[in-house]
Amino acid sequence: MGTNDQKRSLPHGLRLVALAGAAALTLTATLATPLDPAPRQARAADDGKKVLTVAVAQSVDSLSPFLAVRLLSTSIHRLMYEYLTNYDPKDNHAIPGLATKWEPSPDKLTWTYTIRSNSAWSDGQQATAQDAAWTFNKMMTDTGAATANGSYVGNFEKVSAPSPTKLVIELKKPQATMAALDVPIVPKHVWEKVSDFSEFNNDKSFPVVGNGPFVLSGYKADSYVRLKANKTFWRGSPKFDELVFRYYKDQDAAVSALRKGEVSFVAGSPSLTPAQAESLKGADDIQVNDAPGRRFYALATNPGAKAKNGEKFGDGHPSLLDQRVRNALFRAVDREAIIDKVFRGHAVEGEGYIPPRFQDYFWKPSADQKLAYDPAEAARLLDRAGYKKNGDGKRVGKDGKPITYRVLCHATDPNDKAVGKYLQEWWGELGIGVRLNCLDNVTDPWLAGKYDLAFDGWSVNPDPDFVLSIHTCGALPATPEETGATDNFICDKKYDELYARQLTEYDPAKRADIVKQMESRLYDLGYMNVMAYPNAVEAFRTDQIKSITTMPAKAGNIYGQDGYWSWWSAVPADSDGSSDNASSTGVVVGVVAGVVVLAGLGAFAAMRRRATAEERE
Amino acid sequence: MTADATPALVEDKQQTAAGPRVRKGSAYPRYLAGKVAGAAVSLLAVLVTSFFLFRLIPGDPVKTMTGGRQVSAEQLAAYREEFGLDLPLWRQFTDYCGKALTGDFGTSYQFRAPVVDKITEALPNTLLLTGTAFVLYTVLGIFLGTRSAWRRGGLGDRFNTGLALTLYSIPSFWLGLLLIIVLSVGIGPLPGMFPTGGMESGGEEGFAYVLDVAHHLVLPVVTLVAVEYGQTLLVTRSALLDEMGSDYLTTARAKGLRDDLVRRRHAVPNALLPTVTLIFINLGRTVAGVILVETVFSWPGLGGLFYQALSVPDLPLVQGLFFVFAAAVILMNTLADLVYPLLDPRVAR
């Protein structure tokens, strides 16, 4: 027996380890319940701090404002650093930021900015014009520092700071976007110590010195970004003590986190799906914000990729060079059906290039100009263009082969796939085949011009210069080997003339009129079929956020605003008992569940022991 | 003939008796050297493959990296020089191999940080998650597999194998989401008890931090264990069933040993070889993480990093991660090869 006991020691030990493991898990469950970041914690942590937690899915590419290009990173920079100007949350017009006023010289080539004297860096030093001049000059002279925002200084001749409150920017040629320089101004005394701007990610030493409404106080890759309120922010301190961006790589998990109260806000990427929005609409203490979006969702045709030097490349289908064919494709897309069936009503039917929320620049075609859904007219247009059906009912190209368009789509976007299926049906009835080419990385074939059509979409800024510029001939790559800023290789002389005029027109009304002419031209050309303006569908907990500023103020979005209005303005809800009650129930049930499981394990071990005892007997 | 035969038999017996000892002594180092050399060759092959394989992805890395932004020809040239893409392919290859051997896999395009830093940042997180799950599902799988085989056909066996097969066939992301809804958000009278995602709440320190991480660990570990333990259970059960008809077990029982001892001391050790293979293969896979589970629970590990690297594609990061994943599998397989002779000396002959 003694021998048997000795031999039993190892398995018994193993069993103990297994039991200990199971017990540890159970204990973790019960012990951890009080640690559970439940609603009460998001609202007010143990030390009384009010914390606003936002669920995000996108990784931070860099926390250096000279390198970051992703939406999350640049949004964080908006919170950390003041820009020269900001945008009014009511109507998007430029308002003071670090600069209190700005004016051009009579020859339109020199802009003078007055820098405010009441903005201090978080280490106590004064923010001055020298900081702004140093930031711009660094971007103009260091390719590493020009990585993210180099295009903003491309037309700058010279930048100087004659005094702490005076910044002077001299231009090579006039440009109307000088009140829309979305460049974070950094503290010279901190950043001049950086030796290599192409490698410095600004993510090792906290807090990071800034002068925005929040100060970056902690960061862990793909876990969280933590910012604390800047109590000395010139516009006034935020109402929440802390703002935390937490990672939820799975959108359904993020929605669950909102339901539970682990996060205060969720926006999805870029929007909640219709199903998620519907499921949240009836939930307690949750408000769904279904706001007009700032994006357009389009189908773009390859107009024949070429470089500035005239060299052609890519393999776009030649039939798409015919405007009648493009217009026929336009007319065979039922945009209403896309809004109803794909976006489930969470979008507005597309017309012009710029979404209606930017009222100054919004344009829509007249009744005569509109390419309304009309499959019969589409068929006639194709017939007239010489693309007739063969005996099999397929339209054939000039080479005698049936036409099948390759449509580039984003594998991660379910909308692309759904609309693609409709295109296969609608264009199939016209006799045109559609082959969806859904990829994780669409950039390579896109830049190489190896597609016929592509799902396209951009977020539009209050100043539309950027989204207009990507269709100019100047945005084409210099040679096929290089990269341009072009979206779809569109190059139209008339469009370019209008673009140049709007860029030098400093009168807002006249500029808006030219922009609308550009949109009209783009519409007629038929290279871009704007199918929808998807809504920004997002949700937040009303028991954590009492009020928050949307942009535009009336029926606008919260996440990804042009400015820091949402998080800066958010007011914490008063703590009440509702969520806490649910949470304390969780504690009780968690403890009870743990005790039951532990008791079960104990009983199991006792039974095992009795069984072996019986065996011994 | 008879007289001649006897010495021969004796000689044979002597050789047989002495044989394994002599051969074991001389064969194991050769066996070990062979396996280690094989592993080294495999690693070199992985190094070469990781360089050329991902260069088959069409497109220009610099264009991909700067896609959507206006970039001057000078800046493009600077990027190409910075990342060594202006060099001929053979120079890029020799540079890559030379640096990789010193642990330098270059700089990530998207994060502008050394690949090694990104990997070492995520590796401990993956090891914590999959390592904890690995220990639990291995112990659980062997324990239940042994019980099932020993009482094959019984209610417990049918329940165990049925449940294991069911859980094994459930997609891990679906099970994860289900657990989030039930145990994290709470359903009906059952309140939420666990975080919905992430590895930490942020801000905790010391023991509170350990508890916080443990709290976040529960659901992803439960998901992994539920999905993975079945495989170990089934392999252990099958191997043990093969052993159960053996004469030595009848002999052991005939000696009067308890059934429990016959199972643990005689049957199980002999049936462990296939399970050990599985354990080591799983251990190798552990490093690669479990992409879907890491995604559902927003666990900041290698799986998510690999997905991000592929979607750009971020060549240096993809190459570095591919090498780490492959090296882990090769290393574990080699370790398994080195352990086999200890379990069964015939393997090294």
Description:
- The complex is a heterodimer of chains A (about 625) and B (about 350).
- Chain A has about 625 residues and is of the alpha+beta class.
- Chain A has two domains: about 50-290 and about 535-570, D-Maltodextrin-Binding Protein, domain 2; about 295-535, Dipeptide-binding Protein, domain 3, CATH 3.10.105.10.
- Chain A is built from 17 helices and 21 strands.
- Chain A has a seven-stranded mixed beta sheet with strand order 8-9-10-1-11-19-12, sandwiched between helices. Chain A has a six-stranded mixed beta sheet with strand order 14-18-13-17-15-16.
- Chain A is globular and about 80 Å long.
- Chain B has two domains: about 45-105, no CATH class; about 115-345, MetI-like fold (Orthogonal Bundle), CATH 1.10.3720.10.
- Chain B is flat.
- Classes of the chains: A alpha+beta (about 625), B mainly alpha (about 350).
- Chains A and B meet through helix 1, strand 10, helix 6, helix 12 and helix 17 of A and helix 2, helix 3, helix 5, helix 7 and strand 2 of B.
Describe what is shown at a glance:
Helices cover 34% and strands 18% of the residues of chain A. Chain A has 617 residues and is an alpha+beta fold. In chain A, strand 15, helix 11 and strand 16 (433-439) form a beta-alpha-beta unit.
Element layout with pairings:
The complex is a heterodimer of chains A (617) and B (349).
Chain A: H1 2-32, H2 39-43, E1 51-56, H3 71-80, E2 85-87, E3 94-96, E4 99-104, E5 110-115, H4 129-141, E6 156-163, E7 166-171, H5 188-191, E8 214-220, E9 224-229, E10 242-247, H6 251-260, E11 265-266, H7 274-281, E12 286-291, E13 295-301, H8 323-331, H9 335-342, E14 347-349, H10 375-384, E15 404-410, H11 414-430, E16 433-439, H12 443-447, E17 453-459, H13 465-469, H14 493-504, H15 508-525, E18 528-534, E19 536-541, E20 545-547, H16 565-569, E21 571-572, H17 578-616
Chain B: H1 2-53, H2 61-66, H3 73-82, H4 89-101, H5 115-150, H6 155-169, H7 172-185, E1 186-187, E2 190-191, H8 206-243, H9 247-254, H10 259-288, H11 291-296, H12 302-311, H13 315-343
Antiparallel strand pairs in B: 1-2
Helix pairs in contact in B: 1-13, 5-6, 5-8, 5-10, 5-13, 6-8, 7-8, 8-10, 9-10, 10-13, 12-13
